[in-house]
Design goal:
With 550 residues, the protein is an alpha/beta fold. It has helices at residues 16-25, 61-72, 78-98, 131-144, 223-230, 260-264, 278-281, 290-304, 318-324, 326-334, 391-414, 436-453, 460-483, 488-509, 527-530; strands at residues 4-12, 31-34, 51-52, 124-125, 149-152, 155-162, 179-186, 192-202, 235-236, 241-248, 268-270, 309-312, 344-353, 356-358, 370-372, 377-378, 457-458, 518-519, 535-536, 548-549. The strands form five sheets. Strands 1, 2, 5, 6, 7, 8 and 15 form a seven-stranded mixed β-sheet that branches. It has a five-stranded mixed β-sheet with strand order 16-14-9-19-20. The chain is globular, with a radius of gyration of 22 Å. It starts with a strand and ends with a strand. The relative contact order is 0.16. The structure holds succinic acid (SIN).
Length: 550
Protein backbone atom coordinates (compact mmCIF):
# COMPACT_ATOMS: atom_id res chain seq x y z
CA UNK A 1 0.00 0.00 0.00
CA UNK A 2 1.45 3.40 -0.95
CA UNK A 3 0.50 6.44 1.11
CA UNK A 4 -0.98 9.13 -1.11
CA UNK A 5 -0.32 12.86 -0.66
CA UNK A 6 -1.73 15.83 -2.58
CA UNK A 7 -0.43 19.31 -3.33
CA UNK A 8 -1.06 21.91 -6.02
CA UNK A 9 2.57 22.01 -7.11
CA UNK A 10 5.24 19.37 -6.66
CA UNK A 11 8.74 20.76 -7.14
CA UNK A 12 11.52 18.18 -7.48
CA UNK A 13 14.91 19.64 -6.56
CA UNK A 14 16.19 22.33 -4.19
CA UNK A 15 18.64 24.33 -6.29
CA UNK A 16 18.10 27.89 -7.46
CA UNK A 17 15.34 26.92 -9.93
CA UNK A 18 13.31 24.85 -7.50
CA UNK A 19 13.60 27.30 -4.61
CA UNK A 20 12.87 30.37 -6.77
CA UNK A 21 9.84 28.75 -8.34
CA UNK A 22 8.56 27.52 -4.97
CA UNK A 23 8.94 30.94 -3.41
CA UNK A 24 7.07 32.74 -6.16
CA UNK A 25 4.42 30.12 -6.90
CA UNK A 26 3.58 29.85 -3.19
CA UNK A 27 1.75 33.16 -3.57
CA UNK A 28 -0.89 31.29 -5.56
CA UNK A 29 -0.81 27.70 -4.33
CA UNK A 30 0.42 25.05 -1.91
CA UNK A 31 3.89 23.84 -2.86
CA UNK A 32 5.61 20.64 -1.83
CA UNK A 33 9.32 20.63 -2.64
CA UNK A 34 11.14 17.33 -2.43
CA UNK A 35 14.88 16.84 -2.53
CA UNK A 36 16.62 13.50 -2.68
CA UNK A 37 19.28 14.21 -0.05
CA UNK A 38 19.80 17.33 2.02
CA UNK A 39 18.50 20.71 0.91
CA UNK A 40 21.97 22.04 0.17
CA UNK A 41 23.14 19.07 -1.92
CA UNK A 42 22.74 20.99 -5.17
CA UNK A 43 24.83 22.15 -8.09
CA UNK A 44 23.74 25.70 -7.24
CA UNK A 45 25.54 25.46 -3.94
CA UNK A 46 28.81 24.75 -5.77
CA UNK A 47 28.47 27.51 -8.40
CA UNK A 48 31.47 29.77 -8.10
CA UNK A 49 31.55 32.24 -11.00
CA UNK A 50 28.24 34.02 -10.72
CA UNK A 51 25.29 35.24 -12.68
CA UNK A 52 25.71 37.04 -16.01
CA UNK A 53 23.50 40.09 -16.64
CA UNK A 54 23.77 43.57 -18.03
CA UNK A 55 24.32 45.59 -14.87
CA UNK A 56 26.70 48.31 -16.01
CA UNK A 57 26.19 51.36 -18.21
CA UNK A 58 29.24 50.25 -20.16
CA UNK A 59 27.46 47.07 -21.22
CA UNK A 60 24.37 46.45 -23.36
CA UNK A 61 21.71 43.78 -23.79
CA UNK A 62 22.58 43.65 -27.50
CA UNK A 63 26.16 42.68 -26.59
CA UNK A 64 24.98 40.02 -24.14
CA UNK A 65 22.70 38.64 -26.86
CA UNK A 66 25.53 38.54 -29.40
CA UNK A 67 27.92 36.80 -26.98
CA UNK A 68 25.28 34.19 -26.12
CA UNK A 69 24.50 33.54 -29.79
CA UNK A 70 28.17 33.23 -30.75
CA UNK A 71 28.79 30.78 -27.92
CA UNK A 72 25.68 28.76 -28.87
CA UNK A 73 27.15 28.23 -32.37
CA UNK A 74 23.94 28.63 -34.34
CA UNK A 75 21.54 26.63 -32.19
CA UNK A 76 20.26 29.22 -29.70
CA UNK A 77 16.63 30.26 -29.93
CA UNK A 78 17.12 33.99 -30.59
CA UNK A 79 13.79 34.92 -29.00
CA UNK A 80 14.69 33.07 -25.80
CA UNK A 81 18.11 34.74 -25.74
CA UNK A 82 16.42 38.14 -25.99
CA UNK A 83 13.91 37.30 -23.26
CA UNK A 84 16.52 36.03 -20.80
CA UNK A 85 19.08 38.77 -21.33
CA UNK A 86 16.41 41.49 -21.18
CA UNK A 87 14.64 40.19 -18.08
CA UNK A 88 17.84 39.11 -16.34
CA UNK A 89 18.94 42.39 -14.71
CA UNK A 90 15.62 42.76 -12.85
CA UNK A 91 15.93 39.22 -11.52
CA UNK A 92 19.47 39.87 -10.24
CA UNK A 93 18.29 43.01 -8.44
CA UNK A 94 15.41 41.01 -6.99
CA UNK A 95 17.89 38.48 -5.57
CA UNK A 96 19.59 41.43 -3.86
CA UNK A 97 16.24 42.53 -2.46
CA UNK A 98 15.79 39.01 -1.07
CA UNK A 99 19.13 39.45 0.71
CA UNK A 100 21.85 38.09 -1.61
CA UNK A 101 25.08 39.95 -0.94
CA UNK A 102 26.74 40.42 -4.30
CA UNK A 103 30.16 42.02 -4.29
CA UNK A 104 29.72 45.76 -4.82
CA UNK A 105 32.02 48.56 -5.85
CA UNK A 106 33.27 50.65 -2.88
CA UNK A 107 30.77 53.35 -3.99
CA UNK A 108 28.03 50.97 -2.79
CA UNK A 109 25.96 51.50 -5.96
CA UNK A 110 27.69 49.61 -8.73
CA UNK A 111 28.24 45.88 -9.00
CA UNK A 112 31.81 44.60 -8.90
CA UNK A 113 31.45 42.61 -12.13
CA UNK A 114 33.56 39.64 -13.16
CA UNK A 115 34.79 38.63 -16.61
CA UNK A 116 34.51 35.13 -18.10
CA UNK A 117 35.22 33.36 -21.39
CA UNK A 118 33.09 34.39 -24.37
CA UNK A 119 31.86 37.63 -22.77
CA UNK A 120 32.74 40.92 -24.46
CA UNK A 121 32.28 42.89 -21.23
CA UNK A 122 32.48 42.50 -17.48
CA UNK A 123 28.98 41.33 -16.59
CA UNK A 124 29.17 38.54 -13.99
CA UNK A 125 27.64 39.50 -10.63
CA UNK A 126 29.26 37.42 -7.92
CA UNK A 127 29.74 36.87 -4.21
CA UNK A 128 33.51 36.29 -4.32
CA UNK A 129 33.85 32.72 -5.57
CA UNK A 130 30.92 31.41 -3.52
CA UNK A 131 28.03 32.91 -5.47
CA UNK A 132 25.85 29.80 -5.62
CA UNK A 133 26.20 29.18 -1.90
CA UNK A 134 25.11 32.74 -1.15
CA UNK A 135 22.06 32.51 -3.43
CA UNK A 136 21.12 29.12 -2.01
CA UNK A 137 21.45 30.45 1.57
CA UNK A 138 19.04 33.30 0.93
CA UNK A 139 16.48 31.27 -1.01
CA UNK A 140 16.48 28.55 1.65
CA UNK A 141 15.86 31.15 4.35
CA UNK A 142 12.99 32.65 2.38
CA UNK A 143 11.33 29.34 1.50
CA UNK A 144 11.67 27.98 5.05
CA UNK A 145 9.72 30.97 6.33
CA UNK A 146 6.82 30.52 3.87
CA UNK A 147 3.60 28.97 5.18
CA UNK A 148 2.62 27.61 1.75
CA UNK A 149 5.87 25.70 1.21
CA UNK A 150 6.65 22.26 2.58
CA UNK A 151 10.22 21.03 2.02
CA UNK A 152 10.92 17.32 2.34
CA UNK A 153 14.50 16.08 2.40
CA UNK A 154 15.53 12.49 1.61
CA UNK A 155 12.63 12.05 -0.81
CA UNK A 156 13.79 10.64 -4.13
CA UNK A 157 11.46 10.79 -7.14
CA UNK A 158 11.41 7.40 -8.88
CA UNK A 159 9.03 7.92 -11.78
CA UNK A 160 6.37 10.37 -12.86
CA UNK A 161 2.73 9.47 -12.41
CA UNK A 162 1.27 9.38 -15.87
CA UNK A 163 -2.48 9.19 -16.37
CA UNK A 164 -2.28 6.45 -18.99
CA UNK A 165 0.14 4.30 -17.00
CA UNK A 166 -1.12 4.77 -13.49
CA UNK A 167 -4.36 2.88 -13.67
CA UNK A 168 -6.45 5.99 -14.31
CA UNK A 169 -8.66 6.91 -17.22
CA UNK A 170 -6.26 9.59 -18.42
CA UNK A 171 -5.51 8.36 -21.89
CA UNK A 172 -8.87 7.57 -23.38
CA UNK A 173 -8.98 7.83 -27.15
CA UNK A 174 -8.39 11.42 -28.23
CA UNK A 175 -7.59 12.62 -24.71
CA UNK A 176 -4.03 13.89 -24.21
CA UNK A 177 -1.92 12.18 -21.60
CA UNK A 178 -0.78 14.12 -18.56
CA UNK A 179 1.49 14.07 -15.55
CA UNK A 180 -0.18 13.68 -12.17
CA UNK A 181 2.80 13.87 -9.82
CA UNK A 182 5.46 11.31 -8.94
CA UNK A 183 6.20 8.05 -7.19
CA UNK A 184 8.65 9.08 -4.49
CA UNK A 185 10.97 6.89 -2.42
CA UNK A 186 11.03 8.12 1.16
CA UNK A 187 14.58 7.21 2.11
CA UNK A 188 13.79 7.31 5.81
CA UNK A 189 10.89 4.84 5.76
CA UNK A 190 11.91 2.94 2.61
CA UNK A 191 8.33 3.30 1.31
CA UNK A 192 7.39 4.48 -2.17
CA UNK A 193 4.81 7.24 -1.72
CA UNK A 194 2.33 8.57 -4.25
CA UNK A 195 2.80 12.34 -4.45
CA UNK A 196 -0.03 13.73 -6.55
CA UNK A 197 0.01 17.28 -7.85
CA UNK A 198 -1.69 19.40 -10.47
CA UNK A 199 1.71 20.60 -11.68
CA UNK A 200 5.01 18.78 -11.34
CA UNK A 201 8.17 20.83 -11.86
CA UNK A 202 11.47 19.09 -12.58
CA UNK A 203 14.41 21.05 -11.15
CA UNK A 204 16.78 18.14 -10.69
CA UNK A 205 19.90 19.74 -12.21
CA UNK A 206 22.18 18.02 -14.67
CA UNK A 207 23.83 14.69 -15.34
CA UNK A 208 27.57 15.18 -14.70
CA UNK A 209 27.78 11.86 -12.85
CA UNK A 210 27.32 10.07 -16.15
CA UNK A 211 31.03 10.86 -16.70
CA UNK A 212 33.99 9.62 -14.70
CA UNK A 213 35.28 13.14 -14.04
CA UNK A 214 32.85 15.91 -13.26
CA UNK A 215 32.59 19.17 -11.36
CA UNK A 216 29.02 18.24 -10.37
CA UNK A 217 27.82 17.07 -6.96
CA UNK A 218 26.82 13.42 -6.46
CA UNK A 219 23.13 14.20 -6.96
CA UNK A 220 23.66 15.05 -10.67
CA UNK A 221 22.38 11.77 -12.12
CA UNK A 222 20.04 13.14 -14.78
CA UNK A 223 16.90 12.15 -12.86
CA UNK A 224 14.61 14.78 -14.37
CA UNK A 225 15.53 14.08 -17.98
CA UNK A 226 15.29 10.31 -17.50
CA UNK A 227 11.89 10.50 -15.78
CA UNK A 228 10.50 12.95 -18.33
CA UNK A 229 11.69 10.83 -21.25
CA UNK A 230 10.25 7.65 -19.77
CA UNK A 231 6.97 9.51 -19.27
CA UNK A 232 6.80 10.44 -22.94
CA UNK A 233 7.92 14.11 -22.79
CA UNK A 234 10.26 15.47 -25.46
CA UNK A 235 13.93 15.98 -24.60
CA UNK A 236 16.44 17.88 -26.73
CA UNK A 237 20.10 18.56 -27.53
CA UNK A 238 21.60 16.06 -25.13
CA UNK A 239 24.77 15.61 -27.19
CA UNK A 240 25.86 19.07 -26.00
CA UNK A 241 27.57 18.25 -22.72
CA UNK A 242 29.80 21.06 -21.55
CA UNK A 243 33.20 20.14 -20.15
CA UNK A 244 34.56 22.81 -17.84
CA UNK A 245 38.18 23.41 -18.82
CA UNK A 246 39.57 23.76 -15.32
CA UNK A 247 38.77 21.21 -12.63
CA UNK A 248 41.43 20.93 -9.88
CA UNK A 249 43.63 17.89 -10.65
CA UNK A 250 44.23 16.27 -7.30
CA UNK A 251 43.59 12.67 -6.25
CA UNK A 252 42.39 13.70 -2.79
CA UNK A 253 39.53 15.98 -3.75
CA UNK A 254 36.89 15.26 -6.32
CA UNK A 255 34.83 17.75 -8.31
CA UNK A 256 36.63 20.92 -7.22
CA UNK A 257 36.17 23.62 -9.84
CA UNK A 258 38.64 26.39 -10.54
CA UNK A 259 36.26 29.09 -11.70
CA UNK A 260 36.49 30.55 -15.16
CA UNK A 261 36.55 33.89 -13.37
CA UNK A 262 40.19 33.09 -12.53
CA UNK A 263 41.02 33.29 -16.23
CA UNK A 264 38.75 36.34 -16.39
CA UNK A 265 41.12 38.02 -13.94
CA UNK A 266 44.18 37.19 -16.04
CA UNK A 267 45.17 33.59 -15.28
CA UNK A 268 46.95 31.82 -18.14
CA UNK A 269 46.82 28.15 -19.15
CA UNK A 270 50.28 26.58 -19.42
CA UNK A 271 51.41 23.25 -20.78
CA UNK A 272 53.83 20.81 -19.16
CA UNK A 273 56.77 22.91 -20.41
CA UNK A 274 55.32 26.01 -18.75
CA UNK A 275 54.33 27.61 -22.09
CA UNK A 276 51.01 29.32 -22.83
CA UNK A 277 49.23 27.35 -25.56
CA UNK A 278 45.63 28.50 -26.03
CA UNK A 279 46.37 31.00 -28.81
CA UNK A 280 47.46 28.06 -30.99
CA UNK A 281 43.95 26.67 -30.76
CA UNK A 282 41.79 29.79 -30.78
CA UNK A 283 42.61 33.46 -31.46
CA UNK A 284 40.58 34.39 -28.36
CA UNK A 285 43.17 32.54 -26.29
CA UNK A 286 42.45 31.74 -22.63
CA UNK A 287 39.12 33.56 -22.76
CA UNK A 288 37.70 31.68 -25.73
CA UNK A 289 34.34 30.00 -25.19
CA UNK A 290 34.43 26.84 -23.11
CA UNK A 291 34.05 24.36 -25.96
CA UNK A 292 37.20 25.76 -27.58
CA UNK A 293 39.25 25.91 -24.36
CA UNK A 294 38.32 22.37 -23.28
CA UNK A 295 39.27 21.04 -26.74
CA UNK A 296 42.55 22.99 -26.65
CA UNK A 297 43.46 21.44 -23.29
CA UNK A 298 42.42 17.98 -24.47
CA UNK A 299 44.64 18.31 -27.56
CA UNK A 300 47.56 19.61 -25.52
CA UNK A 301 47.29 16.72 -23.02
CA UNK A 302 47.03 14.14 -25.81
CA UNK A 303 50.02 15.57 -27.70
CA UNK A 304 52.29 15.78 -24.67
CA UNK A 305 50.97 12.66 -22.93
CA UNK A 306 50.60 14.66 -19.72
CA UNK A 307 47.92 14.05 -17.07
CA UNK A 308 47.00 17.72 -16.70
CA UNK A 309 47.81 21.28 -17.73
CA UNK A 310 48.36 24.27 -15.43
CA UNK A 311 46.52 27.48 -14.67
CA UNK A 312 48.70 30.31 -13.46
CA UNK A 313 47.46 33.42 -11.68
CA UNK A 314 50.52 33.82 -9.45
CA UNK A 315 51.61 36.97 -11.32
CA UNK A 316 48.70 38.84 -9.67
CA UNK A 317 49.13 40.38 -6.21
CA UNK A 318 48.54 37.82 -3.45
CA UNK A 319 46.16 40.18 -1.65
CA UNK A 320 43.95 40.47 -4.74
CA UNK A 321 43.89 36.69 -5.27
CA UNK A 322 42.97 35.92 -1.66
CA UNK A 323 40.25 38.54 -1.63
CA UNK A 324 38.70 37.69 -5.00
CA UNK A 325 38.99 33.89 -4.74
CA UNK A 326 39.01 33.02 -1.03
CA UNK A 327 37.42 29.60 -1.49
CA UNK A 328 39.73 28.54 -4.33
CA UNK A 329 42.77 29.89 -2.50
CA UNK A 330 41.93 28.08 0.76
CA UNK A 331 40.95 24.80 -0.88
CA UNK A 332 44.02 24.59 -3.12
CA UNK A 333 46.23 25.53 -0.15
CA UNK A 334 44.72 22.69 1.88
CA UNK A 335 45.74 20.30 -0.90
CA UNK A 336 49.28 21.62 -1.19
CA UNK A 337 49.03 24.30 -3.89
CA UNK A 338 49.59 27.95 -3.01
CA UNK A 339 47.96 29.66 -5.98
CA UNK A 340 49.61 32.99 -5.14
CA UNK A 341 53.00 31.33 -5.73
CA UNK A 342 52.56 28.49 -8.22
CA UNK A 343 50.33 27.26 -11.07
CA UNK A 344 47.31 25.06 -10.35
CA UNK A 345 47.17 21.61 -12.01
CA UNK A 346 43.86 21.37 -13.89
CA UNK A 347 41.94 19.04 -16.22
CA UNK A 348 38.62 19.39 -18.06
CA UNK A 349 35.61 17.67 -16.45
CA UNK A 350 31.94 17.25 -17.32
CA UNK A 351 30.15 20.32 -16.04
CA UNK A 352 26.84 21.21 -17.64
CA UNK A 353 24.05 19.63 -19.67
CA UNK A 354 23.08 22.20 -22.33
CA UNK A 355 20.11 20.13 -23.50
CA UNK A 356 17.31 18.75 -21.37
CA UNK A 357 13.54 18.51 -21.18
CA UNK A 358 12.19 20.60 -24.05
CA UNK A 359 10.11 23.50 -22.71
CA UNK A 360 8.28 26.55 -24.03
CA UNK A 361 8.77 30.18 -22.98
CA UNK A 362 7.23 29.48 -19.57
CA UNK A 363 8.92 26.22 -18.70
CA UNK A 364 6.04 23.97 -19.83
CA UNK A 365 7.14 20.61 -21.29
CA UNK A 366 5.38 18.72 -24.08
CA UNK A 367 3.49 16.70 -21.43
CA UNK A 368 0.52 18.39 -19.79
CA UNK A 369 1.10 19.06 -16.09
CA UNK A 370 4.89 18.70 -16.36
CA UNK A 371 7.32 21.62 -16.27
CA UNK A 372 11.10 21.76 -16.16
CA UNK A 373 13.45 24.55 -15.13
CA UNK A 374 17.16 25.28 -14.98
CA UNK A 375 19.73 22.73 -16.11
CA UNK A 376 17.04 20.05 -16.38
CA UNK A 377 15.32 22.01 -19.12
CA UNK A 378 16.17 22.89 -22.71
CA UNK A 379 14.79 26.38 -23.27
CA UNK A 380 16.91 27.21 -26.32
CA UNK A 381 19.10 29.71 -24.47
CA UNK A 382 22.33 27.74 -24.60
CA UNK A 383 22.22 26.25 -28.09
CA UNK A 384 25.26 24.07 -28.74
CA UNK A 385 27.40 25.63 -26.00
CA UNK A 386 26.34 27.61 -22.93
CA UNK A 387 27.94 30.98 -22.35
CA UNK A 388 29.64 31.08 -18.93
CA UNK A 389 27.40 32.17 -16.03
CA UNK A 390 24.24 32.19 -18.14
CA UNK A 391 22.82 29.24 -16.21
CA UNK A 392 21.90 30.88 -12.88
CA UNK A 393 20.43 33.65 -15.02
CA UNK A 394 18.27 31.25 -17.00
CA UNK A 395 17.14 29.60 -13.76
CA UNK A 396 15.87 32.79 -12.12
CA UNK A 397 14.31 34.22 -15.29
CA UNK A 398 12.42 31.01 -16.10
CA UNK A 399 11.37 30.41 -12.50
CA UNK A 400 9.85 33.90 -12.53
CA UNK A 401 8.10 33.33 -15.87
CA UNK A 402 6.77 29.94 -14.80
CA UNK A 403 5.43 31.41 -11.54
CA UNK A 404 3.79 34.36 -13.33
CA UNK A 405 1.88 31.97 -15.52
CA UNK A 406 1.09 29.55 -12.68
CA UNK A 407 -2.44 30.83 -11.82
CA UNK A 408 -3.47 30.34 -15.45
CA UNK A 409 -1.76 26.95 -15.63
CA UNK A 410 -3.42 25.72 -12.43
CA UNK A 411 -6.84 26.98 -13.52
CA UNK A 412 -6.54 25.16 -16.86
CA UNK A 413 -5.51 21.93 -15.13
CA UNK A 414 -8.38 22.18 -12.65
CA UNK A 415 -10.80 22.28 -15.58
CA UNK A 416 -9.56 18.92 -16.93
CA UNK A 417 -11.57 15.79 -16.09
CA UNK A 418 -10.60 14.30 -12.71
CA UNK A 419 -8.34 11.25 -12.81
CA UNK A 420 -9.19 8.22 -10.72
CA UNK A 421 -7.08 6.47 -8.09
CA UNK A 422 -3.46 5.68 -8.81
CA UNK A 423 -2.02 2.21 -8.43
CA UNK A 424 0.37 1.67 -5.56
CA UNK A 425 4.01 1.20 -6.54
CA UNK A 426 4.70 -2.47 -7.27
CA UNK A 427 8.07 -3.66 -6.06
CA UNK A 428 9.48 -6.60 -8.00
CA UNK A 429 10.23 -9.88 -6.23
CA UNK A 430 10.68 -7.70 -3.14
CA UNK A 431 14.10 -9.14 -2.27
CA UNK A 432 16.51 -6.47 -1.05
CA UNK A 433 19.31 -5.85 -3.48
CA UNK A 434 22.16 -6.95 -1.25
CA UNK A 435 24.62 -7.37 -4.05
CA UNK A 436 25.67 -3.72 -4.00
CA UNK A 437 28.52 -4.76 -6.26
CA UNK A 438 26.05 -5.18 -9.15
CA UNK A 439 25.01 -1.56 -8.91
CA UNK A 440 28.52 -0.24 -8.28
CA UNK A 441 30.01 -2.23 -11.12
CA UNK A 442 27.49 -0.93 -13.67
CA UNK A 443 27.68 2.60 -12.31
CA UNK A 444 31.49 2.67 -12.64
CA UNK A 445 31.32 0.99 -16.02
CA UNK A 446 28.97 3.56 -17.52
CA UNK A 447 30.97 6.50 -16.20
CA UNK A 448 34.30 5.23 -17.47
CA UNK A 449 32.93 4.20 -20.84
CA UNK A 450 31.21 7.56 -21.30
CA UNK A 451 34.46 9.34 -20.46
CA UNK A 452 36.48 7.24 -22.91
CA UNK A 453 33.94 6.95 -25.74
CA UNK A 454 31.64 9.99 -25.54
CA UNK A 455 33.94 12.71 -24.21
CA UNK A 456 35.27 16.01 -25.56
CA UNK A 457 36.33 14.57 -28.93
CA UNK A 458 34.14 11.82 -30.40
CA UNK A 459 34.22 9.18 -33.15
CA UNK A 460 31.33 7.27 -34.73
CA UNK A 461 32.98 3.93 -34.00
CA UNK A 462 33.30 4.71 -30.30
CA UNK A 463 29.69 5.89 -30.15
CA UNK A 464 28.59 2.61 -31.71
CA UNK A 465 30.58 0.62 -29.16
CA UNK A 466 29.01 2.63 -26.37
CA UNK A 467 25.53 1.96 -27.71
CA UNK A 468 26.18 -1.77 -27.75
CA UNK A 469 27.46 -1.74 -24.16
CA UNK A 470 24.53 0.38 -23.03
CA UNK A 471 21.97 -1.93 -24.65
CA UNK A 472 23.35 -4.75 -22.62
CA UNK A 473 23.66 -2.73 -19.40
CA UNK A 474 20.14 -1.33 -19.70
CA UNK A 475 18.69 -4.83 -20.00
CA UNK A 476 20.50 -5.90 -16.83
CA UNK A 477 19.46 -2.76 -14.93
CA UNK A 478 15.88 -3.24 -16.07
CA UNK A 479 15.88 -6.75 -14.62
CA UNK A 480 17.32 -5.57 -11.30
CA UNK A 481 14.81 -2.74 -11.17
CA UNK A 482 11.76 -4.95 -11.36
CA UNK A 483 13.19 -7.91 -9.44
CA UNK A 484 14.31 -6.19 -6.29
CA UNK A 485 13.09 -3.74 -3.67
CA UNK A 486 14.05 -0.22 -4.67
CA UNK A 487 17.21 1.38 -3.36
CA UNK A 488 18.31 4.96 -4.11
CA UNK A 489 21.42 3.64 -5.86
CA UNK A 490 19.36 1.52 -8.19
CA UNK A 491 17.03 4.42 -9.00
CA UNK A 492 19.99 6.65 -9.83
CA UNK A 493 21.77 3.96 -11.83
CA UNK A 494 18.69 3.46 -13.97
CA UNK A 495 18.45 7.22 -14.64
CA UNK A 496 22.15 7.50 -15.38
CA UNK A 497 21.92 4.69 -17.93
CA UNK A 498 18.89 6.25 -19.64
CA UNK A 499 20.58 9.64 -19.90
CA UNK A 500 23.79 8.04 -21.20
CA UNK A 501 21.72 6.34 -23.87
CA UNK A 502 20.04 9.63 -24.82
CA UNK A 503 23.40 11.41 -25.06
CA UNK A 504 24.88 8.67 -27.25
CA UNK A 505 21.78 8.48 -29.43
CA UNK A 506 21.79 12.25 -30.01
CA UNK A 507 25.55 12.37 -30.66
CA UNK A 508 25.30 9.51 -33.15
CA UNK A 509 22.58 11.32 -35.07
CA UNK A 510 24.50 14.60 -35.47
CA UNK A 511 26.84 14.12 -38.43
CA UNK A 512 28.68 17.41 -38.00
CA UNK A 513 30.80 19.25 -35.40
CA UNK A 514 29.11 22.14 -33.66
CA UNK A 515 29.68 23.75 -30.27
CA UNK A 516 30.30 21.06 -27.69
CA UNK A 517 29.75 18.17 -30.08
CA UNK A 518 33.03 17.56 -31.88
CA UNK A 519 33.52 14.40 -33.92
CA UNK A 520 36.59 13.47 -35.93
CA UNK A 521 34.38 11.75 -38.51
CA UNK A 522 32.47 14.96 -39.32
CA UNK A 523 34.82 17.78 -38.28
CA UNK A 524 32.91 20.54 -40.14
CA UNK A 525 29.72 22.36 -39.27
CA UNK A 526 26.84 21.49 -41.61
CA UNK A 527 24.22 24.23 -41.55
CA UNK A 528 22.38 22.73 -44.49
CA UNK A 529 21.40 19.54 -42.67
CA UNK A 530 21.99 20.09 -38.97
CA UNK A 531 21.00 23.61 -38.01
CA UNK A 532 18.24 22.02 -35.91
CA UNK A 533 17.68 20.78 -32.37
CA UNK A 534 18.06 17.08 -31.71
CA UNK A 535 14.71 16.14 -30.26
CA UNK A 536 14.07 12.70 -28.80
CA UNK A 537 10.58 11.58 -28.07
CA UNK A 538 9.12 8.31 -26.99
CA UNK A 539 5.38 8.85 -27.12
CA UNK A 540 4.59 5.37 -25.86
CA UNK A 541 6.65 5.93 -22.73
CA UNK A 542 8.45 2.66 -23.44
CA UNK A 543 11.93 1.96 -22.15
CA UNK A 544 13.34 1.68 -25.67
CA UNK A 545 14.40 4.74 -27.64
CA UNK A 546 12.00 6.65 -29.84
CA UNK A 547 13.05 8.30 -33.08
CA UNK A 548 15.19 11.41 -33.39
CA UNK A 549 13.22 14.36 -34.69
CA UNK A 550 15.91 16.66 -35.98
C1 LIG B 1 32.73 28.90 -13.20
O1 LIG B 1 32.78 29.57 -12.18
O2 LIG B 1 33.65 28.77 -13.98
C2 LIG B 1 31.44 28.18 -13.50
C3 LIG B 1 30.41 29.13 -13.92
C4 LIG B 1 29.53 28.50 -14.94
O3 LIG B 1 29.55 27.30 -15.14
O4 LIG B 1 28.81 29.25 -15.60
Amino acid sequence: MSTEYHSDILVIGSGVSGLSLALKAAQHAKVTLITKKNKVDTATNLAQGGIAAVLSVEDSVEDHIQDTLISGDGLCNAEVVRIVTTEGPARVRELMDFGVRFQMHPNGQDFELGMEGGHSARRVAHASDLTGKEIERVLLEQTAAHANIEILENHLAVDLLIASKAGTRGSREGVKDRCLGAYVLNRTTGQVEIRRALVTVLCTGGCGKVYLYTTNPDIATGDGVAMAYRAGAKVANLEFIQFHPTCFFNPHIKNFLISEAVRGEGAVLLNQAGEPFMKQYDPRGDLATRDAVARGIDAEMKTSGSDCVYLDISHKPAKFIKNRFPNIYETCKRYGVDITQEPIPVVPAAHYMCGGVLVDYWGQSSLIGLMALGETSCTGLHGANRLASNSLLEAVVYAHRAAEKMPETLAALRRLPKCGPIQAWKSGGAATLEEGILVNHNWDGIRRLMWDYVGIVRRTKRLQLMRERLDWLLKEIHTHFYDYLLTPDLVELRNLAVVAELIVHSATWRHESRGLHYTLDYPEKDDTNFLVDTILHNPQGEESLGPVIG
